[in-house]
Structure formats: structure tokens, C-alpha cells
Specification:
Blueprint (H helix, E strand, L loop, with lengths): L14 H11 L2 H6 L4 E2 L10 E6 L16 H7 L2 H21 L6 E6 L19 H16 L9 E7 L12 E2 L3 H17 L5 E4 L3 E2 L2 E2 L5 H4 L10 E2 L5 H7 L7 H11 L12 H12 L5 H17 L19 H13 L2 E5 L13 E4 L21 H9 L4 E4 L3 E7 L2 E4 L33 E3 L5 E5 L5 E4 L5 E4 L5 E5 L11 E5 L6 E6 L7 E3 L2 E3 L1 E2 L2 E2 L8 E7 L1 H10 L3 E7 L19 H13 L3 E6 L7 H6 L2 E5 L6 H10 L33 H4 L17 E11 L2 E10 L5 E14 L27 E10 L4 E9 L5 E3 L4 E3 L3 E8 L5 E9 L9 H4 L1 E2 L5 E3 L1 E5 L6 E5 L6 E9 L4 E18 L2 E7 L8 E10 L2 E21 L7 E4 L1
Parallel strand pairs: 2-3, 3-4, 4-6, 5-7, 6-9, 11-12, 11-27, 27-28, 28-29
Antiparallel strand pairs: 1-2, 7-8, 10-29, 13-14, 13-16, 13-26, 14-15, 16-17, 18-19, 20-21, 21-26, 22-23, 24-25, 30-31, 31-34, 32-33, 32-37, 35-36, 37-38, 39-47, 40-43, 41-42, 43-47, 44-45, 44-46, 44-47, 46-48
Length: 986
Amino acid sequence: MTDHPLPFRDPRLSFSRRTDDLLGRLTSDERIAMLHQFAPAVERLGVGPFRTGQEALHGVAWMGPATVFPQAVGLGATWNDDLVRRIGEAVGNEVRAKRAQDDRVGLNVWAPTVNLLRHPLWGRGEEGYSEDPALTSAIAVAYTRGLRGDHPRYWRTAPVLKHWLAHNNETDRDTASSSVRPRVLHEYDLRAFRDAVRAGAVAGVMPAYNLVNGRPNHVSPLLGQYLRRWTDQSLVVCSDAGAPSNLVDSEHYFDTHEEATAASLKAGVDSFTDHGTDSTVMTTRIRDALEKGLIDASDIDTAVRRLLAMRFALGEFDPELDPYAQVDDLDTEEHRALALEAAEQAVVLLKNDGLLPVEPKRGRTVAVVGLLADACKLDWYSGTLMHRSTPLDGIRARYGAENVLFAEGADRVRLKSSHGWLHAPAADGATEGGARGAEGALDPALLAGRTDLPPLTCGDQATELALVDWGDGVLTLRTDEGLYLSVADDGYVRASADEPGGWVVQETFRLEAVAGTDGGHRLLHIGSGGYVSVSAGGAKVADAGEKISRDDATVFERETVEHGADAVARVAAAADTVIVVAGNDPHINGRETEDRTTLALPAQQDRLWRAAHAANPRTVLVLASAYPYAVGDAADALPALLWTAHGGQAAGTALARVLAGDVSPAGRLPQTWYASDDDLPGLLDYDVIGSRQTYLYFDGTPLFPFGHGLGYAHFTYSALRTEVDGERLRVSLTVTNDGGLAADEVVQLYVRAAGPAKTAGPVREGLGRRLPGLGDPQDLPRRKLVAHRRAHLVPGAGQRIEFEVPVEELGHWSVAHGRWTVEPGAYEILAGASSADIRLIATAVVDGEAQGPRPVATRGLEAVDYDRQKDTEILDRTKTEGDVVAPASADKEGSLVYRACDFGEGVSGLRFLASGEGSITVSVGGHSLTLQFPDTGGPYAYRTFEAALDLRGVHEMGIGLGGAMRLARVNVVPATDVVPAKKETA
């Protein structure tokens, strides 16, 4: 092998030695420059530029044409690890292929998103896999292994998990704090990241915009305490876009950007994504922080070393040895087939009273109706379609175009002002626009609308518009040519967009009734906040950069040419079977930056399925959406319902094959479908235990449960066997296809604690279940998924399914002892087709020693380690580490409960470490007292307050918190000490 004069170029050396050699050759300024997302070349060493961050959530995004797979939540609905791994391989190969065409494409991919789908109103629910940490972990491990590749040394791409941590709200997303108690942290949120990191296929994580327990994620100590301890592998932490500046500008957590940047770097952030391609702002902040002594050179070196290690693994310095360097798999036949397979496997049959499948036959007509019937919707993280299949396309191809009727169901309207009818002039002489983003863009938020088309005018000729109300009065208006009314940077309104889209959607409007008129309306452009005004120059919402006010708006009268429900009823009555396709546009009313307001299906779409069903009882409702809906009336009235996430380029073909019976649907719900908004906690309530969220804790009756999904075949479960073998739980069962066609079945394995050791049978679920030795209720999951398997069986075939589950999966985080605990006793092993459709139950017994009560007498307790709370929140103890508990409101007392506190042979009092100003009320062992304390000097100025209490034995302790105070810790005063009735120490 050729000798290399520079050791970092020598492939015979370890990556570690090569990284150290290259790092040692870089100047301080060169090292600092590498900490920005767009790291420049070091030409004197022959080192090229490098970019962190290539979106690849369900295909290569933002960089032009690529294979578009189903949305991430749709991949979660497949419950198929092997399929998702193959998709990861395909996406990774397309990243490589596009990199060869365009060096702006990066190999450090920001995917997947593993935030759990805790709350169905979260706007970015389409990006996650499931509400369950085990399913999310399994799918994430599969996808990242595909993206990473299986070469032992070189990586196909370097996946980064998003978004660390506890991030499920777009409302106030850069200022809101998620209050995450220790059990939720360890059992839920961390769990979603842990397995993928341990699997060795993850290159790093991206912190989220939000705060957790009062501290921004970009300075989270959890990055060091947990993330980097899960693996010996080097991990890169990439900031989210603009988040470093948020630490000062919106969160006001630090006074200066130098302090904020230094704190992020020390916490573990390695790459700063801020100010777009302009690296000078961040590098100046880093350099100033270094000069002021806020960081030292070793902090910079640590981050650069991690970034270089990733670049070596990606083969940047060994192009002749990189096994992925020549990959050119883009839009291959295999990828197209994989996109179809994924779309088919993502379809979930929610209900079927025997109507489905509908076999294509000569003379049998099918009506395809609904606002999404002829749509193939993309989301913010989609690539540009090279192939497109809508439900209408797929059904026409499968059933024969001559047998298919169609009505979109949009209301057909005309708008008239005092100057005449609103009119979209012909686009004579306009340049070819093309699809938005088809050329690729590092930041598609910067893509502008078209200005080469004439603006709308008012006159004698009316343009008929298709009006769709997507809910909450948010409208789109589209011409017969398929162009949406949109607003460009110059403020004019044109019929110019192929689809709604963009970081700020420019295609949505709202009609506002004008008092004192006979049906007059103003037309508000939501994206700009300006009102439409029509003058001689055309329709516009802004003039010379100033948005047009309500007072200057043109007043329009709305004339309805045809109600969409009438058109739907007409074609429904003429068909043998009706397929209604409803759902959402992923850019409207639920997306990044915007949470949903309700589970309800928008009223316009609700009217359409009702009109179809009234005209024809053989009506199927297909929901093509990024999230669940509460469609109880439809579930009661209609014979068949299906759900699919937006299925990518092959969505329509896949749906048609399922409807026709070519494929038996076997998708399963990756999250609970609740019956109504009344079942939901507050969006910012992250305590899934206390507020009974997700299938793990929900006590009500869902519309459709987690894991639910039907098919066209029937499967029986038999011969469930369990064995505890050391640290492993071995489970096996037989699944048999009793149906008449080949089909998939998704076998789901759940566990739940059945009772303490030597208990003959399970005790009550939920709050009635008890931990051995404590005698107090404990909020354990009603059932918890620990394994799943998607199996394909031909008619009459049976298969023995075997699972091996770590015994630790039976446990929970013990706040009493600060560790993961598997209590000895009986555990129910539940096998079934969903979380609610349990077919077989067995019991496994785990031996060991019970954890016992809290050792308060010897260890005290952290305030955050409560068992129950009401009206409190968790905040930061200091800016670098620790948690405290505070009242959620200074006007209302918060309460905490600590069960089974063991005060041993006796203590003479309690010491409360607290800050702020307020009161502490303690109730324990028949005693109750209140401590009032003055302002300690700020939220981080802690003092100790003592109270005399004669306590011995085991008791439940309740603590009330009032005012603007923070409680950090409770210690005991030994019985040998004499405590005044009340004492304060600094």
C-alpha cells in the first residue's frame, strides 16, 4: 500500500489515530470554523467543506426528485422492522446517488424523528413513528441500520435522531418547558432514543427547541448523563436551526450569546446550525467565548474530534475504499416496488362489516369522491415526486376508468366586488414555473412564489373557484386549471401554486363577514395577515411592503355555483359502491410550527361522507391523514373505514389494491384514536402517568385502540408458552391463518404486573394495583408492548412465533430508590392482535427481593421523586444540573405525595432545601405544619428551612407548595439533634 506523508490520510491507521492527527494540524480558527453547520474547506490540507444536516425522514428531502415513501407515521403503522430497514437502505443509497450529482447533498442525515406521539394534536405527529417507546425504538433501529449500512468500518450515511427531548408541541415551542417527572423520563422519553443509540447505527442527536424542566434542551445535562453513556461510539450533537440564538433572543436563559454558546458547547453541542450558510456569526461567538475564558481549547477540540470521527466513518478521506462511494441507486425499479410495498403495508382497516374487499367486475361502478380523492399530498420533509398515484388514479387503473365516477366535493364559488367578478387572467407569455422545490434547495423556506403570472383582477368575467375549508375557517381557492390562489413577495394575489406549501403557507385565506352588508365578506390572507384589495393594478394583500388593513379591504359577495355535497350525492347515487377519501393537507392546520385545535374531521369533509352515505349505504370512508381523527359517527354509520398516512408516490395504487382484495390490509394503529377532544389532556401536559395518556394509562374507551387493525383473513392464536431464563423472558406461540387467502398478521406481545410474589391472581388494574411490600397504589401501565412480529401466512398455514424479551422490560423506574426496578412477583404475558384484542394470557414469575419503602431516614429525598402531584411543575435547580418542583401557579398551591417514606427508628425533624418566596406545608404521620419563608434572593439562591417533627416508621408524606418558591430536596434531622419549631439556614 502506498505510504502516506500525512497520517490522517493513511487508511491503515485507526480512525481514532487519524482523527487526532488531523485535529493536531488544524489551527484554532480552522477548528472553530468546523463547529458551524457549513464547515469550510481547509485547502492547505486538502480537506473539503462539510455540511451537517440532510433531511431524509421518508426519502431524500429538499434536494429535488427522489423516491417518496409513506410518511414516518405510516412507516410506524406497518409494524414491520424488516421493511423499514430496507427503506432505510434505499433512502441511504439515494442520498449517496444524489450526493454524486450535487455536492450540496450532505451525508449526515437528520432522521429519523423518534419523539413519541404522546398527544394527537401535536402538529408534527406525521414525523414520529408511534406513541409507544418500544415500537418507536424498533422502527428507529431498523431505519437507522438501513441508513447506516452494514459495513463494519464505513457508513452509508450518518443518521441523527430528532428531537432530544420530550418535544410534542409547536405552540410556544421555543419557550415552553416540558415538565417531565423521573418515571416519565426513564420509562418513556429517554427510552425512545436509547435502543437506537445502543444498536450502534446512530451518529448523533439533535436537541429540540423546547425546554425540559425549565432548562433548554441545548444545554441539557442529560446529553452527558445518559446519551453519551449508552455507547462507547462517538456521537455528534447538532443544534436545531436557530436554536443557539434562541437561548438569548426568545428564551432569555442567558444574558449574552457568548455565554449561551459556551454553555451549549460544554453541555455537548458539537455543530451549530444558525444563521443559514453564514458561519461568521456563530464562529465569532465561539471565538469571543474562548477569549473571555467561558470555554477553553479542549471544549472546542472535543467537539471537532467528534465531527471529524463522523467524517472519517463516512469515507470522506478514503474514497477508494468507501464501499458506498459509487452507489447510484436513484428511482430504481426496486425502489419503486419498495415504495408500493410500504404504502400497501401502511393501510389500516379500522372497520369492515363485510363490504370490503370490493372485487372489480364488469359493469360494477365505483364512485371515488372527496377532497383527497385525486390528491397525492406531500409534507414539509418530502422530496419532489417523480411518480404520482392518487386514489382516483389507482382505482381507475384497477377497476377500469369506464367503471369509475368522480366528484371532488369542493364547493364551486364565484366572488364579486363592487368592481365586478374576481377573475384569474390567462397566463399568456408566462415562464414555466415547475413544481415548488423541484430544483432542490438547502433551505426550502426561502423558495419564493411566482411573479411571472398576472395578478387577479375584477371585471365582467368571473373565475369559478374550488373552495375547500380545511377546518377552523382556513380556506384554499383553486382554479379549474389546478392553480391555487397564492401571494408572492410583491404582495399580489395570483393563481400560481400547484399545491399549498412553504414555510409560511401563502395559499390559505379566511372569509370574514362584514357587519351591515348583505352577505359581504373580506378575504384575509393568513400567511401575511393582509386583506385582499383589488385595484387597477390587480388584487394584492400588501402595498409597498405594508399589509393592507381591514378598513382598506375589498368586500366580496360569495356566490355558490354548486355545493360539493350535492355533487358527491349525485355520483354516489349512480354507483354500486362509494369510496370517500377525506383527510388533511400536511401544510395546513397541523404541521411544524402549528398544532391542531381539534380531533374532529373538518365540517366540509364531514358533510361529504354523510351526503355519500345518504345516497348510497355501500359507502367506505378512507382517511388519508397525518394524524388521528375522532370520527365516531362515521364509525357507527358506515360499513367500512380505513386509515393510511400520506402514502408517498404509490399511495393510490396501494389503496386500490387493498380495496380490490389484491392485498389483505395488515397495518396497525401506531397510536390511540380517541373518541373526542374530551379524552385529551392539555397539550403541554407531559405527565403521561398522572394525566393517563396513551394506551399505557388511558382509562377510557378509545374509538380505536393502539395496535388495532383488521384484515380479510382470520387468524387463531394458540399454545402460548413462557419461561424466565435468567435475564431473558422467552415467549412462544403459534399463529394460524384460518382464512381463505394469504395475509399478514401482526402478533403483539404485552406485559403487565399481575401482583406481588405468591399472589394467586392479578389484582385490580390501574390505581388499584400495588407494589409488594408497600401497600400503596402505584400507577403502572395497564399493559406495555414489549415485542411484535409481522408474519405472512398462506391459507391453513401455522407458524411458531418466538420472542426473547429482556426481563428488565418488565420493570419501571423506582423514584423511591432512584434506579430501574423489576419487582419480584407475577407478570401477565398477553399475546394478541391489538392492545385491546388479547387472545392468550400466561403468567411468568420473577424472583428476587422487593424494593421496600423509601429510605428517607438515610438518604432523604429529591423533591422531583414524587409519586403523585397536582398543580406543580418541574424546573431547573441550576442552569447546569438538577431539578426542583414549584407550584404551577403562584396563586394556587401545588401538592406532592411521597408514598412509603421510611423514617426508621425516628427523626426529630425535616430540612427543606428551597429557593424563592412562599410556603411549604407538610403532612406526615398525623402531623401537619406550614413554613412561611421570605425571598431567598432569587430562584437559584437556596436556603435550608428546618421543621421539628417527631417521625418514626413508614408513612405517606404530603407536601404543599405555595407562592413563587422552588423545592429542591428534603432531608431529615437525626433524632440526636434538637430542632427549634422552625429554623432557617443559608
